[in-house]
């Protein structure tokens, strides 16, 4: 099945190109696997480099594997040309352009995949493929979830690691600190970790012929004269915290190299090796280009050739420890780097001189290179810890495990399990709403000694969603869905049509859509295994369906509202949830637990949704309070909390003395019935003109509500604040909380109002009884007059402040949660 991007398609708009590319990938995934094909990729296609290159050459040279076809994915034109020249006429070696149609055919059909970084987001490992991820070095700088913003930055890396059958570790530190710790693979990853050293380090052992050949290649590639002098390799890392935007002061590197050269002296020559992600930029700096070693020479061959190494935070020095030769560390920005990115080991404990000035470091290295000089005092300890298996045979042992299936006598193990129950929550769109708040509060409150928690989200795009994502405790594993579902567009269309027109669960079995869902789960989670999975959002047919395709686990879905009423909700003359919630309801029977957020709501949903799930599957778990808001509740009212723009009318009114203030917080949508609240307040205000009403929130009915307020002549006493990042400050400055909803779940705002000690007046929505512990809340009928009487009751002193023992309430809710989650044994 040929897959080619027509030349005309290259000029298509970007969206059209993406569609064409997606079709190419989908078609490639339908081709049969080629079990004896190996695809190699290094540094997103920058060349035939690192561990994949060492493994490739070992397999190519071994007669046992003569039947293997070797495919290199390369994006850098010079590297591709060099590899093609070297293997011209070798029938079983070929090169494909990373990201092209041939690339996706190779990646989608190869029996073996070897990568030292990550395949693109569209990649999903197919059943029958063997994926070895070798990574590209022992880390000194913080990685994964340990680095600032690491959860989002690591999204595709975590996805690739979870997909791999084998992960390669050069040493136990790499296994424990990086794989199990920084990328949080402990408990959920089901592949194997190979601790047998790094194949690329084998390449540091050079014969005399290798040495002569490499020196000749260098002499032809750099302008600096080698002339038999010793080589000092200056290999700094990239600057910045994101591989997507390397921020390198490349001109400064040339200056540093020159100062090193001046102090080391004429008996050695300093050459520069940049990180792969900035090599192309470095070649544009004339002063640097003359010292720049070519990308086509394997880094570890250069290390084998070098008489000394200068680096900063790059993991390259771990490899160099195996040579026993001197290492110097140039860290002019050490304090800033430690603060912004961080390192696993303090810089003053490194196995070589650590300097901020290149001239001082040059003098130190000159002394270490002198005849008879002793090693740095920490060198031997570091070499023993980080290069314990580098005996020149690491490649052979890795090939044994991956390609021969021989594990006896090899250091191969599963990642650690600590016995915690593995939980997965899909959190929805993590917008600023009650579902997000309740999700974050629950996850942050779960016992980390008992539960291993994973949060699944779409990749946050805006400031609000990123802020909500950052509210999650760092110990919570965060997985983001990046990219889209693989599969031909016609299959995707048929899937959507079938999901809408018939029972979605029967449709995917009958029409073969099960494969699409299985592939999507695998694309996101690889081999990850959970004991209990939950769709905490509960509103999206796509996510409700996807969660049902986890490997065997107890499956729960949240019912945040009176769902039958929510399905019929009308907004601007439309019913936006009628069809989508109908499809979600059809999947309820496949869930083990349907969780409502209050006892009364559970009973309502059990009765109203009886046609969709057995009665014994309906469960209760109340929402939890926000610990941050709880501390805020104890603080005295302060105008500073809200006085951001003193000219805004509602802010002025909130500071005015002598007013008695009602407040409500919630989305301006049909079920909240703010129109009723405004009508009831108008009756109260006619008798008590010192009263004010603050409506906090945004939504589709905002314009209509403003018109209603204006028509009633209430602009001086009813204030629509719009959505606010800190509604608690407004609530704290108010006197009584009012809720006018027709239906609800367990509103988070009621919990927050109780924490603040506010009197509460609420309409009798279906689950109002028991929405809060105790009977302090005044519940009135759902009509204008009753709500007005309730507000008058507050003014007359008849509605006492609510109270909430947060510790007791939280303990009760967490005990309810423990009942939901079974012992995995």
Structure overview:
Strand 8, helix 10 and strand 9 form a beta-alpha-beta unit. This protein starts with 13 loop residues before the first helix and ends in a 5-residue tail after the last helix. It contains 35 helices and 26 strands. It is of the alpha/beta class. Mean pLDDT is 90; it is low at 1-9, 240-248 and 628-643. Helix 1 runs parallel beside helix 4, helix 10 (250-264) packs across helix 16 and helix 30 (674-687) crosses helix 34. The strands form four sheets. It has an eight-stranded mixed beta sheet with strand order 3-2-1-4-5-6-7-13, sandwiched between helices. A seven-stranded parallel beta sheet has the order 16-15-14-17-18-19-20. Helix content is 39%, strand content 15%.
Helix content: 25-40%
- Number of helical stretches of at least 4 residues: 35
Distance between the termini: 47 Å
**Which structural class fits the helix and strand makeup?**
alpha/beta
Beta-strand residue fraction: 5-15%
Strand order of the largest sheet: 3-2-1-4-5-6-7-13
Radius of gyration: 32 Å
Low-confidence stretches: 1-9, 240-248, 628-643
Number of strands: 26
What is the average of the pLDDT values? Answer: 90
Profile the largest sheet: 8 strands, mixed
Coarse shape: elongated
